[in-house]
Amino acid sequence: MSDYLNELKLPNRILLGPGPSNVHPRVLQAMLSPMLGHLDPDFWPVLDQVRDMLCLVLGTTHNWTLPLPATGTAGMEAAFCNVVEPGDRVVIVVNGFFGGRMVEIASRCGADVQRIDVPWGQPVLPEIVAQALSAQSQVKAVGVVHAETSTGVLSPLQEIAQVVHHHDALLIVDAVTSLGGVELCMDEWDIDICYGASQKCLGAPPGLAPISLGPRAVEVLTQRKSPVQSLYLDMATLEDYWSESRRYHHTAPILMLYAFREALRLIMEEGLRQRWQRHAQTAAGLRAGLQALELELFAAPGYRLDPLTTIVVPENIDAAQVQRQLYHEYNIEIGGGLGDLQGKIWRIGLMGDSCKASNVLLVLSALEHILARQGYAEAHGAGVAAAQQILAVS
Amino acid sequence: MSDYLNELKLPNRILLGPGPSNVHPRVLQAMLSPMLGHLDPDFWPVLDQVRDMLCLVLGTTHNWTLPLPATGTAGMEAAFCNVVEPGDRVVIVVNGFFGGRMVEIASRCGADVQRIDVPWGQPVLPEIVAQALSAQSQVKAVGVVHAETSTGVLSPLQEIAQVVHHHDALLIVDAVTSLGGVELCMDEWDIDICYGASQKCLGAPPGLAPISLGPRAVEVLTQRKSPVQSLYLDMATLEDYWSESRRYHHTAPILMLYAFREALRLIMEEGLRQRWQRHAQTAAGLRAGLQALELELFAAPGYRLDPLTTIVVPENIDAAQVQRQLYHEYNIEIGGGLGDLQGKIWRIGLMGDSCKASNVLLVLSALEHILARQGYAEAHGAGVAAAQQILAVS
Fold first, then answer.
1. Which residues of chain B neighbour A101 with C-beta distances below 8 Å?
2. In this complex, do A40 and B197 lie within 8 Å of one another by their Cβ atoms?
3. Nearest residue on chain B to A233, judged by CA atoms?
4. If both were cysteines, with which of A7, A9, B255, B303 could A205 make a disulfide (CB 3.0 to 4.6 Å apart)?
5. Which tens digit of pLDDT belongs to each residue from A320-372?
6. Residue ranges per domain, chain A?
7. pLDDT tens-digit map of A371-380
């Protein structure tokens, strides 16, 4: 009870879980900038600059683009509650925990949800979406998770968007674990609503959920019959604050926006395509190392997500014990399985500032030694050697 | 467009508006502590300590007490959407902008809202609540704003709570501008739901909304027939993360929680009653100074809020111009009027770390000189002198 009397003493973790990722020192430094009020004209350029850079990262020129003052789950909630009215039919293809959460959230918006299940570890393919839409009439929206954080699977969005629009529905995309780390072009791919989170490949602290609505979504929103059930997440009222009218809606999380601006600046400096390439190459090094250790990857070949790699826990290995040892002996965080996958997979994230060759070598070396102690195989450095083959190129 | 290429260059404001307030350097420093994952066992003590201290600040021993990962408006939304089901009758007494927002939010939850209007600047009195409840049957909840941020009025909660419970309804209280700055004792006063915001008298950055549910509210929540319309703000699922089960609900805004913990520690060090007393005395100094300048206070006598003082803009004075001059010449932010009061009142906040004698003297001196230039009265330092009479005692 009296522990709060002490200063915080926390270990200096290397964050290789499903997020948050480590944050660049410049991002932390930005939070020490002078606090301004949310209606101070000197603060408004910060909003404009964040919006401009966020549009570039999302690949969109549309105005209704802003970071929600809340975390990624609020992004999902905003995506559905702004365009879905009670009774609207919504198709959600579920290939992991976050697809399941889409079903939950759309249902709480009063949607008539048609849930299509795909085995966890498999992608959402355009054929599955086409089949689902052919079996339904008057579908208002289709929800798809671009990068399933629970399974490490990437689904082919561009082809899915074509199918969805062929059936005159809106495409709602969860890009929480892809935005800033793998290719995603909202306008070119014709995505109607896309949301993400600040703390993964974007390299900012957790607390903001970027979201963007394309023209079809804005039209649906403006023609609603019932009000959006959440005032806090009502995009029209949020837009009133983010646009030139600067009408008060909420007290913006000022310091988080300073941090987010700096994280976006770092992306601009690196270049978006170079950043995707860095995530691809670093993940390739990790996968090569894991395969050299004869560890099985969980995600389907061809659909493996670069920012997050999933590994099947070998037989007779205590998954949680390995994670604890990584914490205590190496100060490394990796993720465990969510839902049915608890104890069955590990999740290694290489996102944002955490995505670098040195972290790959460290986690492979640590994992090899901890597994050896649990009797998996002797540690000879095979994982590190295989990873070096790929990473040395960079 | 290319402004984001530059580092942030922001003025060093003295924040005397309706929030955010200035933040103690230790609060900023805390945000530089090592980032941990939201499921890291080494992070959990932070959650426990925040909860323990928040309970002390709210004057409650009840468990369902936590800071929502969003701003104050989300606190209001959570308060209503967790206990109100479609069709439930809710009485809201509106004496300002935020009472009006309660009506809006409760309506979006599907409530049958009975709105009682009180002139802006006047308090919500127990008699008004009693009259409203006698005219209605089966009222599920009553919403009251403790400290109306739009008018600077404090309403007598304890007496209102008795009336509300006499009619078997729940009392929902907005304590956004009172929590940490004026007396508030959730258990002793028998408040069922109370929410606030991090960035005012609590002295943390904006981004979190503390909320607490008492036993009646928890019982109503657990006996609901329909799910809470927001998963993000569903207190039962949030509680699953904040309690020992530590079940994943959202990625906690780690750095904001470090900052909030440090702000709460500063309150513990100062003492809650001492802090209320500091806000009372500093505000008394400001009011004395304003009255010496013959400026009219907007809030009804006897119900004036210490953390936020409202002033009637004198005739022939351009309210916005005065605010701009305070920004540009003195680096001071004060607030203008919201809604119908735009251009008609100013709002001077003395909250958290911004609440100190030196700020009172500075803003009185600045205001006197700016008003003199607009022809209001010659500046002779009368405001500062009157304030000193009171502030010198401290």
1. 231
2. no
3. B74
4. B255
5. 999 999 999 999 999 999 989 999 999 999 999 999 999 999 999 999 999 99
6. 25-268, 271-391
7. 999 999 998 9
B126-134 helix and B157-166 helix, angle to the nearest 10 degrees: 20
Question: What is the bridge-based pairing of β-strands A14-16 and A332-336?
Answer: parallel
Q: Look at the pTM and tell me if it is higher than 0.80.
A: yes
Which parts of A193-331 are beta strand (E)? 193-195, 209-213, 308-312
B25-268 is classed CATH 3.40.640.10: yes
CA pair distance A290, A382, nearest whole angstrom: 9
pLDDT in tens, chain A (394 residues): 567 788 999 999 999 999 999 999 999 999 999 999 999 999 999 999 999 999 999 999 998 999 999 999 999 999 999 999 999 999 999 999 999 999 999 999 999 999 999 999 999 999 999 999 999 999 999 999 999 999 999 999 999 999 999 999 999 999 999 999 999 999 999 999 999 999 999 999 999 999 999 999 999 999 999 999 999 999 999 999 999 999 999 999 999 999 999 999 999 999 999 999 999 999 999 999 999 999 999 999 999 999 999 999 999 999 999 999 999 999 999 999 998 999 999 999 999 999 999 999 999 999 999 999 999 999 899 999 999 999 985 4
Superfamily of domain A271-391: Aspartate Aminotransferase, domain 1 (3.90.1150.10)
Q: What is the least distance, in Å, from the CA of A309 to any CA of chain B?
A: 17
Peptide bond before A20: cis, by omega within 30 degrees of 0? yes
Residue B42 CB contacts under 8 Å (≥ 6 apart), including other chains: A10, A11, A327, B36
Name the residue of chain B whose CA is nearest to A53's CA: B4
Three-class secondary structure assignment of A26-38? HHHHHCCCCCCCC
Contact B141, B109 (CB under 8 A): no
Q: Which of A32, A231, A264 is nearest residue B105 as measured by Cβ atoms?
A: A231
Question: Are A20 and A206 spatial neighbours (Cβ–Cβ below 8 Å)?
Answer: yes
Query: Which pairing describes strands B209-213 and B193-195: parallel, antiparallel, or unpaired?
Result: antiparallel
Three-state DSSP class for A309?
A: strand
Q: How far apart are CA B118 and CA A94, in angstroms?
A: 50
What contacts A40, CB < 8 A, 6 or more positions away?
A: B13, B327, B333
Residue carrying structure tokens 């400290």:
B147
B327 contacts on A by Cβ (under 8 Å): 40-42
User: In the CATH scheme, what is the code of domain B272-391?
Assistant: 3.90.1150.10
> Is A209 in contact with A198 (CB distance < 8 Å)?
yes
Facing A11 at nearest CB: one of B34, B101, B109: B34
Tell me if residue B97 falls in helix, strand or coil. helix
Q: How many Å apart are CA A179 and CA B221, to the nearest integer?
A: 36
User: Between chains, do B254 and A205 touch, taking CB under 8 Å as contact?
Assistant: yes
Interface confidence (ipTM) of the complex = 0.97
Give contacts of B22 with chain A, Cβ < 8 Å: 35
- Contact check, Cβ <8 Å, A205/B35: yes
Q: Give the whole-angstrom CA distance, residue B14 versus residue B365.
A: 14
